[in-house]
Design goal:
3 copies of one chain form a homotrimer. By secondary structure, the first copy, chain A, is of the alpha+beta class. Chain A has 3 helices and 8 strands. The radius of gyration of chain A is 15 Å and the shape is elongated.
Chain lengths: 134, 134, 134
């Protein structure tokens, strides 16, 4: 398995950061296999969806609807409603695998690999890319 | 890695298409490893759950509740509320891996591999099956 | 691929069971690769998030909000609202993969691997751990 980490600046606002270019570079020349994208943080996830046409904004807004930043959370520290950030990764998991053929990600035309970080309190994130060939 | 694609007719209504038989055929005789099921589309996902006892209908109905087809989405083209289809795959991811032993999927008795397509505007879908042996 | 199963007592209440210690033991000494954690049940999922600071309770409570245990479900048997348990795994999938380096899970400091079982009717669960080296 070949593996590496990226360091991503996510700032102090909820963010959706497109990792596709980094992931494509990582697997280039590596043949066939699975790319696993993993975020070793408890308040972020990885999603594969379309960016750049409003859906990244839609997702971040909708996360506030699915996981309201109010007083319901017993895990209560940091920013108001931060407990929501700790439940979110159960739904947008911190791990996803993408097939690779001949060193190329087999994503659809409109798919991007996206780091989803609703957390306002953690401006820098690590992402691990791992390629298992077969 | 052995890999192939299926072409699935999903029609013009939200649909949950059981892929289990196709997946089981694909891995038969291939030994031990992981099967990855990946949908290269930005408005579909893959889930593993029970079909045929009402839960597929329940899931499609509930997606309308979790991702309302109203005017909230900034990604606005196609059918009314179509922006919801672009956020859904962040929650029902387009990728899932299933362990395989001696050419047999290690699904539970009531589990099926299901293509979940809430999109009314795309009647045909590709699904990629990839087997990584180990 | 090396693979084994665990038998987990989840009792008759919704539960979030930390599997991290078992998973870490399983991969110890196995080198580099991907650990796949798979639950062969139609009413449970696997999540990676923080436990022990209230978020496990928050998640179980919030599942009742995301998947209300009321009369909406056409899949209706067992406990009231049990149809919700059959839709939940489409969102908290029964499969997740974690990178392993030199026999060590590459989890973040606050991440745990958690069996999420909202089902009151099934007190015992199987979890399959599979390690694919590379």
């Amino acid at each position: 398995m070949e593996t590496t980490t990226l360091t991503i600046a996510t700032g102090s606002r909820p963010s959706a950061v497109d990792l596709t270019t980094d992931a494509a570079s990582f697997v280039r020349g590596k043949g066939d296999g699975l790319l696993n994208v993993f975020v070793p943080h408890a308040t972020a996830g990885v999603a594969v969806f379309e960016t750049g046409a409003g859906s990244d904004r839609d997702l971040l807004d909708h996360l506030d609807s699915l996981f309201p930043r109010d007083g319901r959370w017993s895990h209560a520290h940091g920013s108001p409603g931060h407990g929501a950030d700790h439940v979110m990764p159960a739904v947008i998991a911190p791990s996803i695998s993408i097939p690779v053929i001949d060193g190329r990600l087999q994503l659809g035309t409109w798919q991007s690999i996206v780091l989803v970080d609703s957390n306002r309190d953690n401006p820098k994130r690590i992402v691990r890319l791992s390629f298992l060939s077969g």
